[in-house]
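Input (Oxidoreductases-like protein):
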Amino acid sequence: MNHVMNPVALGASDLRVTPVCLGTMTFGEQVAEPLAHRILDRALERGVNFIDTAEMYSVPARAETYGATETIIGNWLARNPSARGQLVLATKVAGPSRGMPWVREGAGMTAADIIASCEGSLRRLRTDVIDLYQIHWPERNVPMFGGLYYDPAQERTQTSILQQLEALATLVRQGKVRHIGLSNETPYGVHEFVRLAEQHGLPRIATVQNVYCLLSRALENGLDETLHRLGVSLLAYSPLGFGLLTGKYDAAGTEGPDAPRQARIARYESVRKQRWGRPEALAAARRYNQLARDHGLSPARMALAFCYTKWQVASTIVGVTSLAQLDEDLDAWGTRLPPELLAEIDRIRWEMRDPAN
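Output:
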């Protein structure tokens, strides 16, 4: 049975999107262009109107594939000109380079960098306007991608939040961007972007795109209240815990000769070194996955339904490498988890906490 995905509003913006968003960071690395175009076709056929990408994709980030995902999407849009008007298209400007000198010269993210990155994305995407333009990670020093602790001694900020907002405002004023958002943000960052926007009459963020899944629920430790009270929408990424919550690693683990060869976490050491490669994350995933099976659900369906039904989430970003995966993710829409199952999920969290934060 297919359940209708009624569009939801993003923040105070006029953007209305499906509650499932197609993430595209596999396009250009695991997914070649012909298959990527078929996945885009299928998503549109099935009613998805929200596509998310980034200038640094595909992942894992390499100089050779920088911008490849946007180029693939742009080629698809050029072949399907009527599709652009049906879609909300989101992309991101990379934050400070984090060891990726091919993104830009210099280690920071200046106002000029934001504008140059946007113009590059517009060219690759072959579009005149980006519906939602997001800062991929903060310019200032914050713990992210598995980091746990804020260290004031590591601060290297060169471009203030106000300067970043003014650059984004220039893009909105020029008609190149409709609305703005953040990603991998903290409660402080969200509050400051909103405060300064209201104080100076600058664009207000509509969204924050942060990790949220059974293995990583730190968002519920304060950021969810911030988003709710400020009227900012959450775009949840990695709902399947980078594949850990599909069950495919339960027997073999994430590395070694028996690991699934084509899966991202098995193929790329850089990914395993981040939060998803922790033994504690795999141990917790195995518990959640068995809980799903005990309740007659596939692990992926339970993990997706968890995100799809949480009040904190406006739209859940799903990344796929096949048409079958896309269909499975969309078929999970409408699944309701009974209260007793949600209580068991919370009991596992109490015991194992958030190993992939």
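The longest helix spans residues 279-294.
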